[in-house]
Write a structure and sequence with these properties.
The complex is a heterodimer of chains A (about 525) and B (about 180). Chain A has 15 helices and 22 strands. Chain A has helices at about 25-55, 60-85, 155-165, 205-210, 215-235, 240-250, 250-280, 320-325, 340-345, 360-370, 375-380, 385-415, 420-445, 485-490, 510-525; strands at about 90, 95-100, 105-110, 115-120, 130-135, 145-150, 180, 195-200, 280-285, 290-295, 300-305, 310-315, 325-330, 350, 350-360, 380-385, 450-455, 455-460, 465-470, 480-485, 490-500, 505-510. Chain A has a seven-stranded antiparallel beta sheet. In chain A, helix 1 packs antiparallel against helix 2, helix 4 packs across helix 7 and helix 5 (about 215-235) packs across helix 7 (about 250-280). Chain B has a three-stranded antiparallel beta sheet, with no helix packed on it. Chain B is α+β, with helices and mostly antiparallel strands and about 180 residues long. In chain B, helix 3 packs antiparallel against helix 4 (about 60-85). Chain B contains seven helices and six strands, in the order H-H-H-H-E-E-E-E-H-E-E-H-H. Strand 20 of chain A pairs antiparallel with strand 3 of chain B, so a sheet runs across the interface.
Chain lengths: ~525, ~180
């Protein structure tokens, strides 16, 4: 694969077409080094500075501050310089290749066909030199796969043009800072007139979603945190007669009334929050296959996902939702494996959206809308092996309790036996833990399972709540079979399925079935030519 | 390398025995075990060098100093032996449709990445790897923010060859163009 001259006006071709960044790239590389160090090792840096402060009394004088600041800057600058020195890149018709790293060296090759986004930035310090930074994003990592920190604008635009040609990206006529091709956001013919309403949510449904959703726990945390403050203020402002009357009531009754009041308040707030956030919720599908969700009372938002970019549908029912018969459905787009903030707004791109407050019939109808009529009914759910319960009990109950008993025995032998009243508490705690863990493990065993239909795969999980992940088999990224000694002894294996943004797992199924499922998923990903992303 | 429908062939017995032999499993380079030994040696020496004197001086007790020196040594010997034994289980194979990798001594794992889902590959070389002319290959898909699979213990030449082979297979598997993506 010989590098070819796609470019003009290089920064200096080296051997084999390898190029170096312009010398001014030392500045962004130094800044990047500082930011990465502060982000990843701030504890170590703080510890070192504290050590210098307390050990050498370094920060007692201005000279000490200057010395420490200058030393840190010089260190970052030296690392930036070394990073620049070791950074090389080259490209040919199909790929761009990067070599970098000081101690730990890395050579990476990104096919142009895999570039999802490209961005050209021009920081202020590169403007006088006519240089820009070129960032190329694939779908394979959280940040940019390739960052060319300082290259001539002509070269960056040549590369960008070449990638556009390879990928048929829409041309962006903008020039200068923040030029961005959001290739993955390009939505074909998104006309509102062609949209079909799939479902809308009224206030009652949204309130039910609020009662069943996790907002409840958020409000619970917030209220408990400020309970003391609120209690103090309420007590001060209550009329003296009320306080006198309350004194005559029995304490347990007061406590129960207080708890009920707080619980009621939490649920009311949660329902109101849900109505405010999702007010007027509408889910539509355009004739060219774009799903669009809109809603919100104060801040009306609209999110869109082209159908072929949907990686999975997650159907979720919380513990309270089971009682109220409320389901939520979440559409997942690629790239949702990072923190929540990244999942929702990674690079400004919508990663998922929620369809709140559905009943079972609506949820199944929505599944059929996304995956085709009869999809839900076609799923044949299969549970996991009963050995799962024994295995989990062994690790969650038997071994911890055995360890505790051994530790107690050792302590009694070496020091003194614990008092009898403590022993009864300990025995009660152990019995309680055994019952609780046993119940949770059995509940999870009953929930866990998988289902395969001709063009749909489902994974079920949960303890009290329930979570179903549904996806088309060809959407998988990779599949892993895993088996511990116990599983191998019983001819079992666990199947981990990586999707873009989800990683459902099917534990403890017969190994032959796990292999058959793995093979079918791999075959679908390799042979199904439908676009996955 | 294998030909034919390897995914179906290995289904029968999960990649072992007769069906598993359909895949040409490649073990890590023999120098990889030495590399593990040297890496572990450096790591546990560093731990011992930091832990031993610190605890010894803090407690001013020769027995504590001895324990702080011997404990990392014992842990280091056990973990290094385990890691070296685990190398025997590690292997990769290029199937017709997917890259396979197996690992794990106690908890065993077999990963299959279809070529059509590989986003990019990278080669990495640490300081100890360079001593033994080794490299690891990192495979990225859209499934995670970090590398989805790292194949360590390849010789530098093999890693380059495998990178070329993988990229060629990725190309053959067909990276769908955006125009294809836009017509569901």
């Amino acid at each position: 694969m010989r590098p070819t001259e796609v470019s003009a006006g290089g920064v200096g071709d080296g051997d084999g077409g390898w190029r170096r960044l312009a010398a001014s790239a030392v500045v962004p590389l130094t800044i990047r080094t500082a930011v990465e160090t502060l982000r990843q090792s701030w504890q170590a840096l703080a510890g070192a500075l504290a050590g210098l402060h307390f050990g050498a009394n370094l920060f007692a004088s201005r000279a000490g501050w200057l010395l420490a600041g200058g030393g840190i800057l010089a260190l970052f600058g030296a690392v930036g310089l070394l990073r620049w020195w070791h950074f090389r890149f080259r490209f040919d018709e199909r790929t761009i290749e990067v070599r970098e790293g000081i101690l730990h060296r890395r050579a990476m090759r990104l096919p142009f066909a895999r570039v999802q986004n490209l961005r050209i930035d021009q920081p202020f310090y590169l403007r006088p030199l006519g240089l820009v930074s070129l960032h190329l994003d694939g779908a394979g990592s959280a940040g940019s796969e390739v960052d060319l920190a300082a290259v001539p604008r002509a070269l960056a635009e040549r590369i960008a043009e070449h990638i556009r040609t390879r990928r048929a990206l829409p041309r962006d006529d903008g020039r200068g800072e923040g030029v961005e091709d959001e290739a993955s956001l390009a939505v074909p013919g998104d006309e509102r007139n062609g949209a079909r309403l799939i479902l809308s949510r009224g206030i009652a449904a949204l309130a039910r979603h609020g009662l069943a959703s996790n907002y409840v726990w958020l409000f619970l945390g917030a209220i408990v945190s400020f309970l003391g403050t609120i209690g103090g203020k309420v007590r001060v402002r209550l009329p003296a007669g009320v306080l006198e009357a309350a004194k005559d009531l029995p304490l347990p009754l007061l406590a129960i009334a207080g708890v009920l009041l707080v619980v009621l308040l939490i649920f009311v707030l949660s329902a109101v929050a849900s109505v405010v956030i999702h007010h007027g919720f509408r889910l539509e599908r355009t004739c060219d296959g774009v799903w669009r969700a809109s809603g919100g009372l104060l801040d009306r938002r609209e999110k869109r996902i082209p159908e072929h970019k949907i990686q999975a549908l997650v159907i979720h029912q919380t513990a309270i939702g089971r009682w109220l018969g409320v389901w939520d459905v979440v559409f997942h787009h690629a790239g949702g494996s990072g923190p929540t903030s990244e999942r929702i707004h990674a690079g400004g791109r919508v990663r998922r959206f929620l369809v709140p407050g559905l009943d079972r019939a609506e949820a199944t109808r929505l599944v059929d809308e996304v995956f085709g009529a009869g999809s839900w009914a076609g799923l044949e759910w299969q549970g996991v092996d009963r050995y799962y319960v024994r295995h989990r009990l062994r690790y969650a109950v038997f071994l911890p309790l055995l360890g505790l008993l051994l530790a107690l025995g050792l302590a009694a032998f070496l020091v003194a036996p614990p008092p009898a009243d403590r022993l009864s508490w300990l025995a009660g705690g152990m019995a309680g833990w055994t019952l609780l863990a046993g119940w949770a493990i059995r509940a999870r065993w009953r929930r866990a399972g998988q289902a395969l239909a001709p063009d749909l795969f489902g994974v079920s999980d949960g303890i009290v709540a329930r979570r179903l992940v549904l996806f088309r088999p060809f959407k998988i990224q990779w599949v892993r079979l895993a088996a511990g000694p116990g599983e191998r002894r019983h001819g079992l294996a666990s199947l981990v399925i990586a999707l873009a943004g989800q990683r459902p797992a099917v534990p403890f199924v017969p190994r032959s079935l796990a292999c058959a499922l793995r093979d079918r998923l791999v075959k679908a990903a390799a042979c199904d030519l439908r676009p996955w992303f | 390398m294998t030909s034919g429908d390897d995914a179906v062939r290995i289904a029968g017995d999960g990649g072992r025995g007769k069906a598993g032999s359909a895949l040409d499993w490649q073990a890590p380079a023999s120098a990889y075990r030495h590399s593990i030994l040297i890496s572990s040696l450096f790591f546990w020496l560093a731990v011992t060098a930091i832990l031993g004197p610190s605890l010894g001086f803090a407690f001013s007790d020769r027995r504590v100093l001895l324990a702080a020196l011997l404990l990392p040594l014992a842990v280091g010997i056990v973990t290094t032996a385990y890691q070296r034994a685990a190398v025997l289980r590690r292997a990769h194979a290029l199937g017709e449709r997917a890259l396979f990798y197996r690992s794990g001594l106690w908890w065993r794992r077999e990963t299959a990445i279809p070529y059509a889902r590989i986003q990019h590959v990278a080669r990495a070389q640490g300081p100890v790897d360079r001593i033994f002319d080794l490299a690891s290959l990192q495979i990225y898909t859209a499934g995670a923010a970090q590398a989805d699979l790292t194949i360590p213990g390849l010789t530098a030449a093999d890693s380059r060859l495998m990178e070329e082979t993988l990229l060629a297979r990725v190309e053959d598997a067909g990276a769908p163009s955006l125009s294809q993506e836009r017509s569901p």
